[in-house]
Amino acid sequence: MSRVCGVIAEYNPFHNGHLWQLKEIRRRLQPDVLVVVMSGNFVQRGEVALVDKWQRTKMALAAGVDLVVELPIYASVQPADIFALEALRLLQQLGVTDLVFGSENPELDYLTVARKIQKIPRQAAAFQDYRQTYATQLNQLLERYLGFQLTKPNQMLGLAYAQASLQLNYPLNFHPYLRTGLTEHNQVTLQGEISSATAIRTAIQAGRAYQETVPATSWALLEQKPHYYWSQFYPLLRYRLLTATAADLQAIYQMNEGLQYKLQQAAVSATDFTNFLYQIKSKRFTWARLRRLCLYTVLNLTTEQMQEMRMRAYLHVLGFNQVGQQHLHVLKSQNLTLPVITKVTQKLGNRQGIMARAIQADRLLLLGQAPEQNFGRRPLYQREV
Amino acid sequence: MSRVCGVIAEYNPFHNGHLWQLKEIRRRLQPDVLVVVMSGNFVQRGEVALVDKWQRTKMALAAGVDLVVELPIYASVQPADIFALEALRLLQQLGVTDLVFGSENPELDYLTVARKIQKIPRQAAAFQDYRQTYATQLNQLLERYLGFQLTKPNQMLGLAYAQASLQLNYPLNFHPYLRTGLTEHNQVTLQGEISSATAIRTAIQAGRAYQETVPATSWALLEQKPHYYWSQFYPLLRYRLLTATAADLQAIYQMNEGLQYKLQQAAVSATDFTNFLYQIKSKRFTWARLRRLCLYTVLNLTTEQMQEMRMRAYLHVLGFNQVGQQHLHVLKSQNLTLPVITKVTQKLGNRQGIMARAIQADRLLLLGQAPEQNFGRRPLYQREV
């Protein structure tokens, strides 16, 4: 049986840390196929990705990924548990046997922790304290029942993957890799050849040098415009909040606990996104949760639509090389339950089409001068290098 | 009994032609009070007014108007028949006895024509030809039954006033005044001291000289920013069309005959408003009708909301002098059926308040750098000059 390694990534943008991880996978696991499920144009921290999904696919293919499949917005812009569950559903369809992910403590056995959490009484795990974030309450629970906490973002995500694996009854080999070279410092500021994606985006936006932190292909693609930032889209969010009815906003995914009034009020006076976020921030919600809410709002994504998208998943192929294409060919000959999309037809995009809302969401980028993101686009093909 | 003269105006902007009309009213009719019902921030041709309602109120007061009351969006952005009907409802409440309006042929007896039209069989007057505009079909009817046509915009409007007067059973003296000095040419290009508002707006936008066409107060106010144009708001309209669902758009006022699909499709490719309008234009709809539809859409005004606004009318006072204030005082002591608003309280503006949707519509201007348009604003007071 072949070994298919899978990575769940945003590549926002693809940098030297990502390249190191891919090389390590080749070295340690010798996979037959290396598959990446990559967030499309919208990422988990509630932002439009810096460059579009096609540019980021090019970066991944140039670094040796065999197959890139899109993680659509209904999955990519979600709290960790839903993000992980939906990503693993796609990995399962793609025949992935081994999951590699970055972790602050790779010695942790995530699957064992997840099994222990399953045994915690249900009522204890229903978080009702409106003054604290989900993560805080989860950790209080872990501390109480298991005697430790998982406070780092990638610990939380690793645990979510393990929980999803159990939930889907999907036996998957877990390979947490230490995120190399990342210190407290270069998470926020560039330093040497390895820096966090956040630090690199900040440098790019500020016009500072970042070339040594990314592979040559990323560099060449990142030097092209357009780039996308919340600052560009905030006037649209503000407009939407100022003109929407309470009922319109009430229907938006995750718009609960009266948040719509808070958002509408902040929009009256806040003329930039940073100021807006500060006005709506409370202890109850993380910055990421609020940015995601802002993204759902500007994209007009309702609870009903998000549910429906999750019910009608698909595999949208963004790119491959010969190995990836061959793997896809084999998958299609088996009994896949999800449709494989290599060409976005009008039928997929029309009102009843399974991609309708995802295509509509991507249209936001047109307002930032993006080229068409779906219709007529075929998977990118990477020749042997 | 006192003579109260009324004018229905947009003053977009207030120019020498308007000044001439007011002087003629004083000279010919010697009114005790001169009342103007003025469109708020949105005008009948489906645009945001060049400058806001407060600036335009200042212009009118400086020219000697005694009382300025707002014609809210549910009335100001409508086809001629509804525009006229709703404006006359306000004039009736304001105790107006004499209506003065511009006309290309003041010798026409509009009330007599309106009475004749009332006698035309109902089924003949139900226009069903989807290839032609309302105006074209109305004129075919007039030609057939009365033997003449009313093709000029102000003839149509005058007739609409007369029809509204009959419909409301509101006996009103009609004074059509010849619009002086206007030729075919200066409708579109500035020429001398009298030019059309359209020509003046075009000149202002193009940065050409226009000072001699407007009174000094208008000039001083027009030299200040911000100004509002569709070009500023088109990105918001485009965003809205690209992210709204078919159901969202179907609910918009006047969005019928499948227009939402046409608008959505045009928004994908059209990057400016002019190009967008050309893409959606057909023989069936006039430019004004389509611009109004665009305005309803960008303001997210549904059929239900427009109906509700019409059912809950009010008199929002924008400005007065001592005479106007005194007149308002007398009116309030009588049994007015509509509330008089001289201070926009939070209660009027909250979700159930009668001004809620009108205030929300005005918020569009905040995105064009306008100051707050309603809360905390009191009527402007013009001292004797």
UniProtKB/TrEMBL annotation, chains A, B:
Keywords: ATP-binding, Cytoplasm, Ligase, Nucleotide-binding, RNA-binding, Transferase, tRNA processing, tRNA-binding. Transmembrane segments: none annotated. The keyword RNA-binding applies. It comes from Bombilactobacillus apium. NCBIfam families: PRK13670.1 (NF010191). GO terms for molecular function: ATP binding; ligase activity, forming carbon-nitrogen bonds; transferase activity; tRNA binding. Its main location: cytoplasm. It is found in: Cytoplasm. This is tRNA(Met) cytidine acetate ligase. Catalyzes the formation of N(4)-acetylcytidine (ac(4)C) at the wobble position of elongator tRNA(Met), using acetate and ATP as substrates. First activates an acetate ion to form acetyladenylate (Ac-AMP) and then transfers the acetyl group to tRNA to form ac(4)C34. One of its GO terms (biological process) is tRNA modification. Its EC number is 6.3.4.-. Gene3D superfamilies: HUPs.
